[in-house]
Every structure is written in C-alpha cells, then in structure tokens.
Amino acid sequence: MRLYRLLYIFFILCFFISYSQKRQTLLQKKIQENSQLLLKDPDMAFTEMQVLLKEAIKEKDSISELTILGNQCWYYDNKYAYGKSIETAKHLEAKAKQYKQPQMEAMAHLSLMNTYSQNSLYDAAIKEFEKGMYILSKTNPDDNRTLFSKINLYFTINDVYVETKRPYKALDNLFQAQKLIGKIKDSATKNEMQILNFSNVGQVYTILNSDSAKYYAKKSMDIIPKGYENGPYMFSNYLTLGEVYRKEKKYETAYENYKNAEASKSVRLSLINQIILYKGLAETSKVLGRSEDYNKYNLLLKNAELSVAENKNKSLHNIISRKLLEDENKVKNILVISSLMILICLMGLLYFKIKNQRLIIKEEESRENLQEKYDVINKDLILMLEKKDSTFMISFNKVFPSFTKKLLAINSTLVQSEIEFCAFLKLNLSSKEIARIKNIEPKTVQNKKNRIRKRLSIPQNTDIYHWFNNVDI
To answer: What is the DSSP string of 253-289?
Structure first.
C-alpha cells in the first residue's frame, strides 16, 4: 500500500515552516494552505506554487523557497512526471546547500529515493537513503527538523524493503522511527507521527502475521483525534483490516472495512491503492453475491489498471531514454550512448556494492538463509503439534536451546505449561491456530497472551510476536 509514501514528503515539509521560525509570515501561512490544497486539488495547488515561489525568491525567504520546491517534487511524482521530479529534487539539493539547510538537503534525497523506489530502482533508492542519513548525522540530533527528517527517511525506505520481500528489515526501520518519535516534545505532532507509524507497521504485518496486523491497525485508529475519524489516516488502517479479513475469508467483515476505507479517502489515491481497494471490494462483493457492487467495483478496478498501463510510458526508464535521444542528436548515435550509460551505471553500482555494501549483503544473505532454515524447522515443529507429539518440547529445545533459559532468567516462576505456550508464540502461531491445536476458545488464548505479557514484563506497546521473535537469537 503506497498512500503514505506520497504523503511523507509534503507532511515533513509542513513542519519545516512551523519550526524554522518562531513567528510565521503571511507567505508561510499561504504555503501551508497550499500544501493542504495539494492533497485535494494538485493541479490548482501547483498553479499557485508558481506565484508563491516567485514571491519567496523576491522576499529572500529561503525556507519558503525550499518548501515549495519540495512540494513540487511531490506533485511531479504524483503525476508520474519522474524526469521533472528528479530535476526539481536536484535543484532543491543545490539550493539547500547554498542556504546551508542540511535537513532540506536530506529531503531532496528523500524525494529522489521516493522516485527511484516507484520505478523499482531499489539499489539507487537505498543509496539516496544513506546519503540523507549521512547528512543528518552531522546535524543537532535534538533539532525537531532533524527528528522529522530521519523519521520520514525511515518511513519511505520501509516501502523499498517491503517491495523487495524483506519485511523484517522494513519492521526494523519502522521501530527505529518509533524510537525517534518518542523524542518529539509536542504531543499533537508526536501523536500524528505515531498514527502514521503504527499504520505502517500494520501494513507490513499483513505479509507476516494477521494478529499483529490487526493489532497495529487498531492501535493507530485508537489514537486518532476526534473529528478525524474519516480522514486520510483511517484509509490505510481500514485497507489493512480489509486485506487481513479477506485472507481469513471473513468476507462480510472485510467488505465493511473496504467500504470504510472508500468512505475515508479524503485525499486522491495513488493508482496502486485504487487497485488494492477496488480489487478487495470486487472480490468480497462477488463472494457475498452482491452482483451490482461487483460490477461497479470491477469496472473501477479495470479503469485503474488501464491507467497504470497508460502511465508506463511515463516511467523513469523511458524518460531517461528520451532524454538521451535528444542529447545524442548533438553528439553521436543514441544506441552507443545508451550502451555506454548502462555500462557506466552497472560498473558504478558494482563498485558501490563491493566497497560499501559487502558486509551488509553478506549479513542479509545469512539472515535470509537462516530464516529459510527456521521456516523449514518451524513447519516440522508445528506438524508435531498437529499430531500432538509428546516429544514436541524436547525437539523445540534442541532447535532453540537458550529459549527456556532466557525466559526463566526473566521470571524463574514460569511453569512448564506457560513455557510451552511461549513456544507457540515463538513459532508465530496465531490465536486461531493455537485455539484449534489446543482445542480451546480463542478468547482463552488471548487471556493467556495477556498473562504471559505480564509474567515476562513485555511492554504494552510492543508486539508480542516481535518480542518472542528476538528471544534466542
């Protein structure tokens, strides 16, 4: 789901004006209003930006000038005008250096990271993330602008790891963001950031664990202020719940959440999110026998998919090719230059990986191999549970030899039945699966989870599965 990937940049830019000066000028207030308009009517907002940019340059208001450039990057990405987006981001980077505004310079790299990520250039996106973090490492860590910039870099790189099927790496980044959110002093701003982050964590967990996905989506919804129940933040949470319940084949509940998402879309949705929403509504409508709704949403789905196909010619790869063609008319044949550029890019990426990412790559490969081995072992252990094999705990302790010791080190009064229940959580079994295997009610499983949380002093704001996943590592 990519709703917030396009919201991050404008979201953080709004804060730069708020925190750069104690008292806002009339121009800066106009820019904040323009940022809000950007979500509802991007074309009208962009027209206003041209006037506001000239005014900012005339008044020598560097923060306003940089903020408008950042919003223009957002606009171009939203319009699939990736060539313009890159050009504007480079201009933003140069201006931020000129005005000595490192946080805005980092935002230029965030914009580039977003553009590369949308075009599946994930290595380039990660490189921009690292550049942004390096710039921010030289700033005051307690500066609100630095905090917001780091948080949003973590938010945006999260999508890269989801797309490249590294969800645990995505979660690590989101939990890093959560630590930084805790340092924000303004309660309203902190709450808004937490709403976003819990929603993001819930989205990642749709891939890994349905219980955790629901937990974080509802946690995000619980802290949304009154009056904003149908705002843009709710869209992502409802969509997450719709996806989870659809996978659980609870089609009526899934349909209700998809409909709630549709009702709360107070911003223009990306084509990706349109496809997810309308596909979910079409599928659940069909299963529930609501033919009129199915026809409606299936048509909307086809229109969104058609728009994606039509926008393929706007991809970054094609834009680069066309630009090379124009330049080649002045120098040499386009095929020679294209081949040379591809070769240079490949050599550059290879050099970068060899020099700077060798250890990171090895670590990722080791982790993935280990995860694959654990997946196979876990399946064997779960099969033993299904067969009610009395030697389950003996086999489990061979696989995770330090697991029981570490639990007893935290609470030496744990009994064997509690340790066995902890083993179920270590294997990432959902409440429903545990209830089926142990022939008990799901509510009883939830009560046991709550008891274990207290017995092991697991914080309420920590996902219990994530906590057990880190035991015996």
So the answer is: HHHHHHHHHHHT--SPPPHHHHHHHHHHHHHHHHHTT
| 300 in the same domain as 439 | no
**Is the pLDDT at 407 greater than 80, yes or no?**
yes
- In one-letter notation, the amino acid at residue 77 is D
Domain interval for residue 269: 186-311
Task: Encode pLDDT of 456-472 as tens digits.
Answer: 999 988 899 989 988 86
Per DSSP, the three-state class of 417 is: helix
Closest to 176 measured CA to CA, from 205, 196, 155: 155
pLDDT given at position 63: 86
Alpha-carbon distance values, 313 to 111, 124, 307 (Å): 21, 21, 11
AA identity, residue 451 = R
Distance CA 311, CA 3 (A): 18
What pTM was estimated for this model as a whole?
0.65
Across 303-322, average pLDDT: 65
When divided into structural domains, the chain yields a total of 4
Co-location of 396 and 428 in the same domain: yes
